[in-house]
Amino acid sequence: MPNLESISIRTATSADIPALHALIEASVRGLQANDYTPAQIEGALGHALGLDSQLIADQTYFVAETHGRIIIACGGWSFRSTLCGGDHLPGRQLTALDPAHDAAKIRAIYVHPHWSRRGLGTMILAHCEQQAYAAGFHTVEMGSTLTGVPLYTLRGYRECNRSTIALPNSEGLIIVHMNKRLQAASK
């Protein structure tokens, strides 16, 4: 397998959507099974855990790919109010945030299970933080899965609270609200 030096990050396009759906499903099924039940995972896929195509339209969603152009991780940030969730999660809010008063949202970071624990989540997260900072935001927040909390805690995020998203199959998915103050060279 290639090392991280052979991985590049680029802005996602609508042509990437089929590959992103496949990556997200593989990531959720492969990496979140220790934190959520099979019923929670099935109910969450494409709903609470899925692609928000608004991020692609806003050009704030990114893919990490090998030189062979295989997408192995993805993630983004948003200047809109929605904290988390995919295209089919009810209550999405497209209101633009004010960087002087609001926190940008870190959104939908997924890594293919074959590439987990190699620094890709950190790489995508740092890229998103840098992009949000360049857009004028000084704080970021997210709705993390239980699986992501250890990584985000190591990267300086603090837990604010927990909530449960109701899923279409009558299950619930615990989401951890986390935030962080950004600095110019956030890594």
Judged by helices, strands and strand pairing, the structural class is: alpha+beta
The percentage helix is 25-40%
Largest sheet composition: 7 strands, mixed
Task: Estimate the mean pLDDT confidence.
Answer: 94
Distance from N terminus to C terminus (CA atoms, Å) equals: 24 Å
CATH structural fold name: Aminopeptidase
Low-pLDDT ranges: none
CATH class: Alpha Beta
Q: Identify the overall geometry.
A: globular
Fold and architecture overview:
- This protein is of the alpha+beta class.
- The protein has one domain (4-181): Aminopeptidase.
- 26% of the residues lie in helices and 28% in strands.
- It is built from five helices and seven strands.
- The protein has a seven-stranded mixed β-sheet.
- The longest helix has 15 residues, at 17-31.
- It is globular.
Write the SSE topology.
Layout: E1 7-11, H1 17-31, H2 38-44, H3 53-57, E2 61-66, E3 71-78, E4 104-111, H4 120-134, E5 139-144, H5 149-154, E6 158-166, E7 172-181
